[in-house]
Protein: Short-chain dehydrogenase
Amino acid sequence: MSHAPPPAGPSNRTGPVTTSVPQPGSGPRPDGNRAGRGGTALVTGASSGIGAVVARRLAAEGGWRLVLNGRDATRLEQVAAQVDALAVPADLTRPGADRLLTELVLDHGGRLDLLVASAGVGWAGDFATMPQARIDEIVGVDLLATLHLVRALLPHMVAAGSGRIVLIGSVAGSVGVRGEAVYSAAKAALAAFADALRYELRHTGVGVSHVIPGAVDTPFFERRGAPYSRAWPRPVPPERVADAVWTAVRDGKDEVYVPGWLRCPALVRGAAPGLYRRLAARFG
Structure:
């Protein structure tokens, strides 16, 4: 995966931009669901996989001024050209990249109505043999980069009094997956962050959605170093995740599993952890 430098400026879309500082309470509704009616949206991890499909879905819905971020500049430009979006290639794990991206988004759109944080990497294998660099990369990309970006963007959304943050998690964060210990840990932390942040943002007009897919048919598995080999469940197409993202945005949902039945293992683990662990040890 390539590492582009922090954004130096926008590309693909041209024309004048305006900068505005939102005033507290200026948002149209205090329920966090203005994002369902369009506005400025930022999608990270948009150069391929889930992020790219989410960008296309938002473009198809209409009414969105899209800003796309990813680490592969060439692929990102291709996706941006397809959906008439502003492409901002950047590695968000680099210090200060979150603040620069925030400035560009606000300069471009004047405000931010929707963040879809879908950037993520993985690694498959026994934790005892996992290279330290891969541990740092997964925690950096899947967790810390998202936290830093949300921290940079959030004050502007709260000041505007509306907006929605959509975090793309994983069922691995709900139940833990053998051979993906660090990925599971990072996604579990992201799930806890989504819950805690949602509590903090009550009555601010900013909502938080957590979309939790299982295996998805994207290049993710090739890049993690091992293909998906389970006979069941089969990977779902990324369009189903994009549908779930749109449902969360449109209806203001807190949590959406993809497919929906994946909520059951998480419920069993919570209600009967001993039973779940015995079943997971045997079948997982």
Summary: The mean pLDDT is 85. The domain at 34-283 is CATH 3.40.50.720 (Rossmann fold). The chain has ten helices and seven strands.
